[in-house]
Structures are given as structure tokens and as C-alpha cells.
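Researcher: Next sequence.
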Amino acid sequence: MSTTRRLSSLSFGLLALVPVLCSAQAPPDPPALVQEGRKANAAGKFDEALGLYDRALKLDPQLFDAHLATGITYDLKGDYAKARAALRRAIETAPEGARLQALNAMAVSYAFENDATGAATYYQQQFDAQLKAGAIDGAAATANAMARVYLESGDPQTALKWYETGHSTAKKLTSAPPDQVDLWELRWLHARSRIAARLGNAADADKYAEAVKAIVDKGGLNEEQRPAYQYLVGYNALYAGNYQKAIAELLKADQRDPFILGLLAQACEKSGDGPRAREYYTRVLASTSHNLQNAFSRPLARKKLAELK
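Model: Next structure:
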């Protein structure tokens, strides 16, 4: 091979290495690290997820998504103090349009410990901001969420006040289509029924449950709410001490919902079926969602699985 050809080949080889060397030296992309962390979180690999978020924050300490994701993962791990520290930073660094998401995440974080007062602090801010912005449906949903935290934290009277606020707020949706009007009425009756059940008033619980069923039985889009009705009947049966009925009805509800699975686990445990209760508590822990359904169920499932060994 001639000297010229050898030099040409060498030059080509060096040029071919340039993209590789540049790629190897390029710093990791913080948003991409957060995305990888979210995948790890969804797979239940919490420590791996936190490591990826930490790397992202070292590169960009103001990255909202990384602070938010860190708080969510710490909640799922059960480290609530660290979760709230991260979520406070998420609120501080939230860009335009993301503050409500951060406030909601912080409220849910308090729900993991049944701290209704703490949750209400952030739900109230969210509710006020939504009303100010004219987001009536969002404000009504936030009021209902606040009410639900009070109910599941053992304060049905304050829950009723906030459900009333949610109901009256939803009434302002004057241009809502009929199925949406029915849906908000169903939510109100559903709440009244659960509150009655928690207060030990079986007659009122049944009365409101029948009213929920009447709305569902209209058919059409209302039929989509039948699993919510089955959940209601199962919920009321659980608190009435009718565990076999609770199990039968809850099995007709949404089996992807960790709250439903948690209720099933409790009904099985109270009926004396420890192995089946353990199965449902284990399924609760498989959920990596950061919402009220998981907040109400995950801490109890972790505690019960340790007891049922």
C-alpha cells in the first residue's frame, strides 16, 4: 500500500472516531436521566430511580421534574420526611402551569400518613387557585379529594363539609352535559353513602347507595360508573362487618385500583383468610402510582405484610 493511501486510511479512521469520542465526552441530559428514573420507579426499583434523579439534580439543581419525581419515589419508599423536602423544592422550582401539580403531590404525600390537616394546607391552595382561574371542575375535584382524605383519616364530619363544598362548586358548571351533571350528583351521593357507613348509619348508607344505583341504571355513559357502585356496596359492607358481601362486591370493582385491593385485603383478613389477605396486600405494593388510592393503601399493606409473615 502506498504511503498516500496509508495516510488516507489513517485519516479516515481518526475521523470515524470523532463522533464516538464526542459522544463519550458529552454530559448526560438531566431530563433524560429523570425519564430513566421514572422507568425504574415504575418497575419498583426505587433506589435506582433516586440515583438517577440525584445525578440529574447535580447537573441542574433547579430541575422541577427531578424534585417532583424524587418526592414521589420517597413517598413510595415510606420516607415521608425526605419526600416532603423534595416536594417543597418542587413547589419552589415549579414552572408556569406546574405549581398545581406540585401542590397536589404534596397533599397526597401527607395522605400517606393520614395527616388530613397537612394535606388540606396544600389542597386549599390548589382549590383557591383553580377557583381564581375559573377551573370549576378542577376546584370541585380538589374539594372532593380533600374530603376523601378527611374521611379515610377518620374525620367524617369534616369530610362532609368538604364534599358539600365540592358538590356546590360543581353546581356552578351550568353548561355541563347531562351525563356530567349525573356524574357529579353520583359523586355526591357516593360520598354521603360512605360517610353514613363510617358513622355506623347503615340505613342512610343503603339509601344513598340505591340513589347511586339509580343513576348508573340510566345506562349510556352512566353505565361506566357501575364499578364505582360495586366499590361503594363493598365499602359499606366492610364497615358494616359483612365481610363476605364486601369481598363479593369489591371483586366486581376495579381490580387495578390499589385502594380496592386494600379493601379486599382487609375484608379477607377480617374474615379469617390470612393467605388471601396477604395476596391482596402484596398486590397493593405492586402499585407505584402516586395518588390517594395508593396513599390510603400502601402504608397499611406494608404494615400488614410484616405482621402476616
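Model: The longest helix spans residues 3-25. The chain has 16 helices and no strands.
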